Amino acid sequence: MIKGYTLPRTPKGKASLVPHPPWHYVGDVVAIEYTADRALIEAYLPEPLTLESTKCCIYFVDWQYASEDGKEYLDPVESQYKETIILMSASYKGESMAYCPYIWVSQDKAFLRGLIQGWPKQMGETHISKAFALESKAAPTGHFGATLTVNGKRYIESQILLDEENAEMPSPTFAGSALLRYFPNLVGDKHDEPLVNELVQLKSRDVKVSTVSKGDAQLNFVVSSEHELSDFAPVKVLGGYRFQVALTVDDLKVLEKL
Fold first, then answer.
1. Which are the contacts of 154, defined by CB distance < 8 A and separation ≥ 6?
2. What pLDDT, on the 0 to 100 scale, is given for residue 139?
3. Mind telling me which InterPro entries this protein's record contains (predicted)?
4. 62: closest CA among 75, 47, 81?
5. Residue 91 and residue 210: Cα distance in Å, rounded?
6. What is the rounded CA–CA span in Å between residue 208 and residue 103?
7. What are the start-end ranges of the E strands in the chain?
8. CA terminus-to-terminus distance, the chain
9. What is the bridge-based pairing of β-strands 236-257 and 213-221?
10. pLDDT (tens digit per residue) in 104-155
11. Of 31, 94, 167, 197, whose CB is crowded by the most CB atoms within 10 A?
12. How far apart are the C-alpha atoms of 239 and 162, rounded to whole Å?
């Protein structure tokens, strides 16, 4: 008998790319709230989601991960990765929730964990300024930059200049996001009949958030105007944020089969 939570499944079940949940995360976050063009982004929402507002939020996150029984944090190659997440403001039957049209991640294990949940992950490289307790010309004092590159091409660049402590969390937030779990069918005449097509909601537990700092921000989409990502280019930048977050994932709520 072969075992394992994900492929590859083996006699001992230890080779699975992703181990059995729960999955534990902690991360440093740089986030920027902004508005986008309603005419361009509204069509991204799968029914029955509707657009609540044109407010979006982009998150650049430096994550560290551990499984329930593992100590992956002792091996940074296993536990650390970076991610860029774009969220839009949606509504489901009158309930406000975020929806994720795009997300990029730097590690295969995180990529697969995301697909299992419904995050539409692609591979990309997120870069974030580091903070240090020591005073130095090389250490930011409330001034941070974050960028996204994909296959060596810069897609997004940003800066934040923090001047406010104890701020509210940015919105939309990725906790409780609506996601689209979708797995296509390769059988001959069934290419348009996906094996999995469902609207789900992320269920995180044991969520902890540090003090949130806020300030002015700049956000620029460098990607070509012909790339669909440019649909989410900012119309107006509202503010920048920096904080830390920790959470655990081991459940999912199915909202509707599509």
1. 147, 148, 222, 223
2. 86
3. Acetoacetate_decarboxylase (IPR010451), ADC_dom_sf (IPR023375)
4. 81
5. 27
6. 22
7. 23-35, 50-67, 80-92, 95-105, 121-123, 125-128, 143-150, 153-164, 178-183, 196-209, 213-221, 236-257
8. 34
9. antiparallel
10. 999 999 999 999 999 999 999 999 999 998 999 998 789 999 999 999 999 9
11. 31
12. 9
Q: How many CB atoms lie within 10 A of CB 84?
A: 28
For residue 91, the number of C-alpha atoms closer than 13 Å in the C-beta half-sphere is 9
**What pLDDT is stored for residue 175 in this prediction?**
85
98, HSE (Cβ side, Cα atoms, 13 Å)? 24
- Which two structure tokens, joined as six digits, stand for 134? 């020591």
Fold for 23-257, please state it. Acetoacetate decarboxylase-like (2.40.400)
The answer to whether 200 and 253 have CB atoms below 8 angstroms apart is yes
Separation of alpha carbons 173 and 86, rounded Å: 10
The ranges assigned to domains in the chain are 23-257
- Burial of 193-220, coded b for 16+ CB within 10 Å and e otherwise, reads eeeebbbbbbebeeeeeeebbbbebebe
Q: How far is the C-alpha of 245 from the C-alpha of 252, rounded, in Å?
A: 19
Q: What is the identity of the amino acid at 81?
A: Y
